[in-house]
């Protein structure tokens, strides 16, 4: 596989190793287990694992589980599965909650140094007193408590003597700092909630800005890579490491998060789609989750190539969703067997073909990859073609079937439409055609030409199948006009049609991928497919206007 080219983080690591600032590197992927991972997380996973890999370092998978109310072991398990599926093996697996005791002790150290205090102000009061960019903050009335008082109050917080919100522990830094993050940030809050890992042991929980640097330092992480919104938090990150007197000193670096057009990229919002049953679960193929993309039929390789190609930047941008589609087409082009599927069938009777005769036609499995060999396709008197491939009154330049016109059946013969059979409502339900035995595919026939080639399946042996066709779940996500992403849900994001596939893929297994001639790439849905009932998810159509 092609590894991504140079990026600013590689340059930093390279320098740090050369200068002896570090003698090995450790990165981490630190998800909060409050939802399933999405394609944005994939970018971070690939970045962290490949950066360490390139410099023979290590990568930790660490669950940043400091917020009991929203976290769950279901999410822990799904995250592990997704990271593995993407193709990465963590060197160590950690839970931030395993460090709660150490974090508590470091907070006690801060109090003893006069660098932290128990504060009685409410969340709203704290927000008000922190001031604005142009206006300095004001100290809380609790700011001048003595060390003894603070030690006692913090211990009582831990013991559960106060209700949620009644007290917090704050760092004592600088209420006039131009960086609002440094205006006595909250380090601990009270939450009487059961934690997925520590149960009811704790009722105080560390805040992200306090916990994260400690987690990194405890594990010996050298390069702690996060998204740009945390750039202003870096001074606080360094403050925590320094004032808590951590032995190992990690450094934070920021890169631009991945945004994709018409794609919701936030666990909170994705959870709302699941909870409100807009989709049928986190792994619904319309979801930009790793599990949704996998179920739709995306391969780990395509996602890795995509992440490498978009690169690692220092400025935010939005990637066209067509780019992701481009990479799955590229990946499957040589791998996926090609076959014919009729999604919306119309019966065709070939009146001059002998009854009770079935012949086997040979076709390449993948004309772009001849090593895949050939397959046998049955052909007989009755076949199905696509309803769209017939027009009773053809528009201009229509080269498919219409009364009196001749087309090529892919891998078979020319057929000509002679008659139409309609039901009592006037709907066309059958075509009566004739074929020309001289025109057999592969025979070298050059007698005359036809303009259209259409696909088909043999009616006597066709295997019924369900096809799920997807459109974007969100249309023009634009929250600037005051609307929410929930106001932009596409009501037609899923269309289900029933048709037929060639008999030679009857035994297709969940997650097997095919290219259906003219229709695109499809994946056997692992949830809805059962023995005797094949369900295919369309991964992507064949055509693309996207150019790299
Ligand atoms: P969300 O808001 O979707 O929950 P998050 O950043 O809160 O995202 P975490 O579980 O904290 O989710 O993220 C784990 C790691 O993934 C973090 O290091 C974070 O920076 C990174 N990450 C999350 N979203 C993106 C994204 N869109 N692009 C790149 N990295 C991301
Ligand atoms: Mg987070
Ligand atoms: Mg989040």
UniProtKB/TrEMBL annotation:
It is found in: Cytoplasm. The keyword S-adenosyl-L-methionine does not apply. GO terms for cellular component: cytosol. InterPro entries: aa-tRNA-synth_I_CS, Gln-tRNA-synth, Gln/Glu-tRNA_Ligase, Gln_tRNA_ligase_bac, Glu/Gln-tRNA-synth, Glu/Gln-tRNA-synth_Ib_cat-dom, Glu/Gln-tRNA-synth_Ib_codon-bd, Glu_tRNA_lig_a-bdl. CDD domains: GlnRS_core. A motif ('KMSKS' region) lies at residues 264-268. It is an enzyme of class 6 (ligase). This is Glutamine--tRNA ligase. The gene is glnS.
